[in-house]
Amino acid sequence: MILHTLNQHSELLVRNCLNTIASGDSLLLIENAVYLGIEESFSTSPMAMRTDINLYALIPDCEARGISPLLFPGFDLIDYPGFVKLCTEHKQVISWY
Amino acid sequence: MKSLCIVSQQSPYASPRAKEALDAALVAATFDIPTTLVLLGDGVFQAIKTQAGEKIQQKNLGKQLAVLPMYDIEVLYVSEQDLSCRGLKPEQLMDNVQVLPGEQISELIRQQDMVISL
């Protein structure tokens, strides 16, 4: 299992990441990438097609940007300790930036 | 006195650019320059009402944008297209924001003497 972290609000980055992501992998949105999780735009994103991956978003970054109430409900929200836990649970971590 | 338009195109918090655009607007307004602030592209994220920069140990940019009327910058202009393609609705933005279609934004920018783009 691989943990993929995205930290930019960029459709291109999403596409690159999704080309490499395998069934059962996890995708974590941090920093500006949390904007990609806004439900209204997420529903038309290629990410929404991938029901075979686990979706996570980092709480402090969502709250700072004011999008917690707007997030697609399929995201598991995690804090910094949760982020560390995810890293330990996956064999590899790939950062997309 | 020549008028100034500041075009801010970056989201807050990840880079200092949004804050720098605001600072430029405040400085200009302090010198009584008629100033217009326009949020385009990812800049529209600056206007989200529920933001709380303190959660990541930063100053809340929304609170700073909210006091612009005290500096005679009555409204912030936001592009309708840039807003909707990012999945946002006007009611999710701060009160001193006006959403305009792209062609009205470009007309607004054309009316100003100078433009600074950040």
From TrEMBL, chain A:
Gene3D superfamilies linked to this entry = DsrEFH-like
Which cellular component, as a GO term, is one annotated location? Answer: sulfurtransferase complex
For biological process, the GO terms are: tRNA wobble position uridine thiolation
Q: What protein name applies here?
A: Sulfurtransferase complex subunit TusB
Q: What is the lineage of its organism?
A: Bacteria, Pseudomonadati, Pseudomonadota, Gammaproteobacteria, Oceanospirillales
Automatic annotation (TrEMBL), chain B:
Q: Into which family does the record put it? A: Belongs to the DsrF/TusC family.
Q: Which PANTHER family match?
A: PROTEIN TUSC
**Name of the protein this chain belongs to:** Sulfurtransferase complex subunit TusC
**One matching Pfam family:** DsrE
Family matches, as Gene3D superfamilies: DsrEFH-like
Q: Taxonomic classification, please? A: Bacteria, Pseudomonadati, Pseudomonadota, Gammaproteobacteria, Oceanospirillales
